[in-house]
Amino acid sequence: MKKVEEILEHPFFITILNALSDGVLVADGKGKVLWLNQACASFSGKPISFFIGKDVYLLEELGVFNPSVTKLVIEKQAAVSTVQTTTGKDSRFIVFGYPIKNEAGGIDYIIAQTKDITEIVKTTNELEETQSMLKRYSEQIMLMNYEKQVDSYYFSGQSSAYLSLLQTIDKIAPAESTVLISGETGVGKNVIAQRIHGLSERGHGPFVEINCGALPESLIESELFGYAKGAFTGANKAGKAGLIKMADGGTLFLDEIGELPIHLQAKLLQFLQQKKFLPVGSTVYQTANVRVIAATNLDLMEEVKKGNFRSDLFYRLNVLPIFVPSLREREDDIIGLVQYNMEKYNKKHKRHCYLSGNVMDILQNYDWPGNIRELENLMERLVVIAPEHEIQVKDLPAHMREQDVNAFDLASFNRGDSLTEVLESVEKDMISKAYAQYRTTRKTAEELGITQSLLMRRLKKYNLTNGNSKERP
């Protein structure tokens, strides 16, 4: 393979790059200029020979490049964009620096591309807007990288429940209002919170998370609000900034908010209303510009009725509510999530496991009480312990093997029962379980795919209304 230096000397290559209106400069991995086109030289008013062999650090000191994007690429070891000026000229340039790395990850060469934006700046007289544009561009790149990481785990699917959730998130993310995420344990409420943060204007700021149920009650207040110097025995002599202060300019995620002690709920409410708080042991209020997202697997309205949660705090948090569906409500997404996690843990543990057809049937029909967290843990366990590449039913936990949809147990029916009696028994069992779960005839009929009037007749036929006499059809 030819070296870049040899390619740069090729007449055809030189002709093409000199025809461009954008400036192009090529430097080696240490910042020594190897080549530049005529446009790049003309931007500074100096001949090409002036640059060849010179160090970009020296060129920046001389004011030829202010700042040098090549130097910034070397320092950050990544692509960089910036606004640049040059000595003696009232000109502005937008410059992009791109590293070309070797297999070891080191930088062999750096390509700098320069666009003259002087006329644009003069016309608008707003250089700040250009810098803001660059900032937004950088944030979009960061968001794209963020979404690649998060989407691959949770945000993949085609079920109506998933699509509805995604639309809700996209609508509320740009707002500054508080968000209350509810749903069963393991559905990914923390991932939802991270996505809302990433899609918001605060996406470039900190995302700080605290699990209100994981810390002892005595520590939550100091962790959340911080404490002043000498606030209590054993405290840091200099005091400590709380998580609210650490989240300034970003998002504070309060997971398991229903576990927050009642005496701290008033203090949190004051912060939400006034954006100020009092650290433990301090007499001076502090402020923080924070968006709050809370999450719970409890019925907070029921907790309010029980006196365990303040009603004023509930309504202050419940401005933008989000309900995250359980995995059993995302039945169409289970296969995709299983396959993704199987690939992830195959790669992590250097295996090549795959699921048999019977196993996939069981997984798709399993209730998943632990939701996505249970699915992820199961996939890792199977990849680690499976004796063969093909994961079979015998490799599943005992409680899941019992769910085998291919095993139709005739022993569960009485000998001599007719087909009609067997079908009625199955129908009664299905209706009974669905009615116990959804508790209203409207919702039960909807889930069973029958009319409400038909369901009412079946409930009466099988005498299934006694246990739910208070429910309203």
Question: Which helices and strands occur, and which strands form pairs?
Answer:
Blueprint: H1 4-8, H2 11-18, E1 23-28, E2 33-36, H3 38-44, H4 48-51, H5 56-61, H6 69-76, E3 80-84, E4 93-101, E5 107-116, H7 118-124, H8 127-151, H9 160-172, E6 179-182, H10 189-199, E7 207-211, H11 217-225, E8 226-227, E9 240-241, H12 243-246, E10 251-255, H13 262-274, E11 276-277, E12 286-287, E13 291-296, H14 300-306, H15 311-317, E14 320-323, H16 334-349, E15 354-355, H17 357-365, H18 371-385, E16 390-391, H19 398-401, H20 419-438, H21 441-448, H22 452-461
Parallel strand pairs: 6-13, 6-14, 7-10, 10-13, 15-16
Antiparallel strand pairs: 1-2, 1-5, 3-4, 4-5, 8-9, 11-12
Report on this structure.
The protein is α/β, with parallel strands linked by helices. It has four domains: 121 residues, 2-Layer Sandwich (Beta-Lactamase), CATH 3.30.450.20; 167 residues, 3-Layer(aba) Sandwich (Rossmann fold); 75 residues, Helicase, Ruva Protein, domain 3 (Orthogonal Bundle); 59 residues, Orthogonal Bundle (Arc Repressor Mutant, subunit A), CATH 1.10.10. 46% of the residues lie in helices and 15% in strands. It is built from 22 helices and 16 strands. The strands form five sheets. The chain has a five-stranded antiparallel beta sheet, with helices on both faces. Helix 16 crosses helix 18. It starts with a helix and ends in a 12-residue tail after the last helix. About 4% of the residues have low confidence.
